[in-house]
Each structure stands twice: as C-alpha cells, then as structure tokens.
Amino acid sequence: MPYCRYCGAKLEEDAHFCHKCGTPVATFTPAAAPSPKKRSPVIILAFILIAVMLMAVIVGAIVLVPVHSVNFNQTNQVNQPNVTTLNLNLQADTAQVNIFTESLADKTILIGTSAEGMSGFFGSSNPVQVTFSNETVGDTLTVTSRVTNRGFFGNAISVTCNIYVDPSVKLNLNVTTETGQISLTANQPAIIESLNLKSTIGLVQANIQNGSVIAGDMSLESTTGEIAFRMNQAKVEGNSTFNLQTTTGTVDMNIAENKTLAGNVQVNAATTTGTINLSMLIKDGVGAKINSQTQIGQITTNLNNFSGNKSALKSNNYPDESNFLITLKTTLGTINIDASCQLAFGPRLRN
Predict the structure, then answer these.
(1) Residue 196 and residue 174 in contact, taking contact as beta carbons nearer than 8 Å
(2) How confident is the model over 128-143, as pLDDT tens digits?
(3) Of 236, 275, 272, residue with least CA distance to 255
(4) What share of residues in the chain are helix, strand, coil (percent, to 5)?
(5) What span, in angstroms and rounded, lies between the C-alpha atoms of 265 and 218?
(6) pTM for this predicted structure
(7) Cα separation of 107 and 21, whole Å?
C-alpha cells in the first residue's frame, strides 16, 4: 500500500491526492528495457556472399594451379596380313587426331597417343587413358579405341593421336572428338568405303588425292569449327554422297577432277552462321550443277564455261559421263563460287 510522501498517511492504491494533506501522489513507471538492435537481412546476405566468394577464390586457386607434370606415350598396333577391310571406331574427349594412309612394315593399323602438359591439384600425373581392342571376322578387322582425359580440374594437357592405316585395305573410318581437330590425309592411294569425321568444337578436314578411291559416302561435321575438304584427282566408284556441315564455322571445298569418274557425286554443304567457299576445276567427262541458297548474305561467282545466274549454275558440258551435283546452303553467310570447266573442243551446250 502507498504512503503520502509529505505527511506519511496511508493512501488507497488508486489515489491521486493525499486525503489528509492534499499532496499529489507520485507515481513511478519503470523504464522499458532497451530492445536489441536487429541487423538488416541485406547486410547479413552481403557478409555471406563475401565469405562464399573468398572461399571460392581460395579453393579455385588451390584447384587450378598446375602441380603435376604430364608426359604420356602409348602405341597400339595390329598386324593382320590376311584382312582386306579395316573398320576403325575411335572416340576422344579432347585430342588432335591425325589420320594417315601409309604403309608401316606390315602393320594394318598403328595408333600412337601422346600427351604433355600440366595437371591441377586434384588431377593426376597420368590423366590420359587409352582403351584399345580389335577383332577379326573373316577378312575384316574391326578396331575400337577410346581416348579419355581422367583428370579433374586444372588440366592444361595437349593430347595427340596419330593414326596410320594400311592403304592396301578397304577403309571404313569413324572418328569423333568432343574438343579438338580431326584431319585425314591420303598420303598414299587408298580405298575409302566410308568416312565419318565429327568434332563438337574444332576443325574437321579431309585431303583425298593422288589416285585414292572413294567407294562410298562421306560425312565431315563440326558444331563449332571449320570444315575443309579437298578432292584432287581422286577416283570414285559408284554413286557417292558427301555431307559437309558446320553450325558456326566456314565450309571450304576444293575439287579438281580431270578424268571421268565411275559414278556421280552428290555434295551437300551447309552452315548456319558462316561462309561457304567452293573452288572447282573440272574437265571433259566431268560435269557439274551447283545450287546455292542463302537467307541473309550474297552469292558471288567467278565462272569459266559455266552458265546460269548464281543458282542454278551448270557447266557447259552438263550432264556428262559423270557429274557433281552440289547444294550449298547458309543462313547467315556468303557463298563464294570459283568454278571452271576446261573443254577440249571449246564450250558446247548439252540438253
């Protein structure tokens, strides 16, 4: 019970004045406890992001710094003197693949794989793995190989596969790589029954010349990379189709034939964003018809003994005993055609 602060008389609980002396009753209200300050969620999030970024930089530096030296070499080969056909299936993650038609002391095929560079903190000093198997059924040899980069982060490794195939056997070549160049060079005349070269990121090229025989279909394909195709005095057995395709890149073709082919050749060249270049030199016995299409771009021509206005173009001897039927398509790019037909008796028109 409260008391008057002046006269000491007892007061009622809810009294505002002393009933004896009239002194106002003093009331005491305790101060509220200070509320704790709250941090802004934005500030807390910023601290968390900074910590994560710092941790990522530290971990990245540890992971990406090359610490292992890589020096890898492996050779696989098969000697099968009684085979007449070779089927090669090779797949690589990241590699430069070079294919040569070349005789090597009775070897049907030899694959030399080498790698050099540096591997990261979590990588291996030997991150490249090559699997190789072969099977012979009758007179046909089938070789299957895979080149895998087993390293983790931080690898800076250059992998090269050099493949030598016996030009005396019929060749069916199927080679793919995710990242890297694929190149076929016919150093010695060979019989190519089928050719399939494909790279996701990288140049794909084929150089077929000096009497090599094309006895089937061919495909050169890249998603992001250039397609380069050269056919110089090669032979053709039967009708064949060549597909040359890239999504982002240029298609370069160089065709020179001065003898009648034992069949017709259909060439389909296409790119989405890139230029198509065709250089062609043909003579009597070989005719050509060229169809071109571009949505945004132009078609330029430099012609000798060809008639037509950009599309379709026909050599003045078309159709002849053997013919090239060529289709060129690009969405965002230019088509450049340099075509010449050399006729022994001067220009002549055929129906």
Answers:
(1) yes
(2) 899 999 999 999 999 9
(3) 236
(4) 5, 55, 35
(5) 11
(6) 0.78
(7) 129
**Closest Cα partner for 146 from 174, 170, 106, 126?**
174
What sign for the dihedral angle of Cα 192, 188, 259, 206? positive
* Structure token digits, residue 319: 């159709």
**Which amino acid is it at 232?**
N
Eight-class DSSP state of 74:
E
Give the Å distances, CA to CA, from 326 to 61, 137, 243, 311.
52, 38, 10, 11
State whether residue 302 is helix, strand or coil. strand
Write the pLDDT tens digit of every residue in 3-30. 776 777 777 777 767 767 767 766 655 5
State the Rg of the chain over Cα: 39
Rounded distance between C-alpha atoms, residue 190 and residue 163, angstroms: 14
The β-bridge partners of 315 are: 306
Angle CA 182–329–325, to nearest 5: 85
For residue 63, give the 3-state DSSP assignment. helix
| Residue at 75: amino acid letter | T
pLDDT digits (tens, 9 = 90+) for 228-266: 999 999 999 999 999 999 999 999 999 999 999 999 999
H helix and E strand count, the chain:
1, 25
Q: How far is CA 195 from the centre of its chain?
A: 18
